[in-house]
Amino acid sequence: MPGRPRWSAAARLAAAADVADLRLLARKRAPRMVFDYVDGAAEDERSMARSVAAFGRVEFAPHVLRDVSEARTSVEILGRRIAMPVVLGPTGFTRMMHRGGERAVARAAERAAIPYTLSTMGTTTAGDVAAAAPGGWNWFQLYVVRDRARNLETLSLASDAGMDVLVVTVDVPVAGARLRDVRHGLTVPPSLRWRGVLEAARHPAWWFDFLTGEPLRFATAEGAPDDLAGLTNLLFDPSVTITDLEWIRSAWPGKLLVKGVQRVDDARELAAVGVDGLVVSNHGGRQLDRAPTPLELLPRVVEAVGKRTEVFLDGGVRGGADVAAAVGLGARACFVGRAYLYGLMAGGEPGVTRVLDLLHAELVRTLRLLGVGGVEELGPGAVRLRGS
Questions:
Q1: Are strands 310-314 and 277-281 parallel, antiparallel or unpaired?
Q2: Beta strands at 277-281 and 165-169: parallel, antiparallel or unpaired
């Protein structure tokens, strides 16, 4: 019996050998301004490029003649075991990439037995995510806005939806200068005036989804400006300090992570106030350009906070070998953002699943080639950064 035609969506996803292939598929399917919203970063995009390039400096030191018939990928984070050291990170405006949006991502994460993090700037409510993936480990990400009552209401809705891990992002006191978005005139919601009828004709599948799907809007954030930077600057509170973690902690019954740590002294201070975890992150290079490179900073943060606080890495992860490298350098798990959005743009929920399958397969292969039986055996002896 003949297989699926090579031109089918399923065949294209199955033929993708890595995340880079899915990125190319995403670029073909989505309008340029949508693709650039995901693919781009702040200013000259140096931070993003350095975050990715840092993984190119990784050197593995494999053992040989070891029994690698088994390669365990599961790990325990925040008191719960997951299938591999990957967390699907928070992303804004997710239904712009594909009508399946956050629901599709949450379902893919549920099947892969890893956490999914819903963003304050998401386009689906916490309750709808919980209904879409009732057996998943669903987290919530908070941007502190000027209206404290709104923050408390948002936290209550997330908690009521069963979300028990809060990720407070602290590296956005004001919006970064994402020049690709500025040049495209990105609006909320997107408009046909961006590229007009010609752009629609070049990407009919995306535009059909957009025009026939439910109206695209932020599920939590509300505000007047139709540009993302303007909305961020209107809503987000630039006066937030570490003392604000006290009222956040009092309003949140679950675990608390702080995302956006870029200095060792800040890591020590946050660990001292008792947060459950830190995410070493430069926001994917989308905020301050020329910011520290997470993978390079990671070992120093881990050393500074010891075992008191779990440390996660965010930024530049494009494959399972990257995950192994980050864990070897001290991360409990990696946050992944752009990689799964490429899959979502390329093929909706099956595209996200394809990304997770690739990450897992690459991680297993890397462990076996390293001569280790599981991720718990990874450490500085197996991984180093050349030039460090």
A1: parallel
A2: unpaired
| CA–CA gap between residue 204 and residue 148 (Å, rounded) | 42
DSSP 217-238: --SS---S-SSHHHHHHHHB-T
Q: What share of the chain is helix, strand, coil (3-state, %, to 5)?
A: 45, 15, 40
Beta strand 58-60 pairing with 383-385:
antiparallel
DSSP category for residue 95: G
Helix H or strand E encompassing 156: helix 148-160
The model's pLDDT over 274-292, given as tens digits with 9 standing for 90+, comes to 999 999 999 999 999 999 9
Q: What is the pairing mode between strands 165-169 and 116-118?
A: unpaired
Sequence spans of domains, the chain: 17-56+76-366
Report the C-alpha gap between 37 and 52 in whole angstroms: 17
> What CATH architecture is 17-56+76-366?
Alpha-Beta Barrel (3.20)
Catalytic site positions: 283
Q: How far apart are the first and last CA of the chain?
A: 55
Q: Distance (Å, rounded) from C-alpha 245 to C-alpha 83?
A: 30
The CA-based angle 164-167-173, given to 5 degrees, is 150
Q: Which amino acid is at 109?
A: A
Residue 2: left (phi > 0), alpha (psi -120 to 50), or beta? beta
Tell me how far apart the alpha carbons of residues 125 and 140 are, in angstroms, rounded to a whole number.
10
Provide the residue count of the chain: 388
Tens-digit pLDDT profile for residues 328-354: 999 999 999 999 999 999 999 999 999
* Stronger pLDDT, 9 or 108, i.e. the higher one: 108
Over residues 235-239, the mean pLDDT reads 88
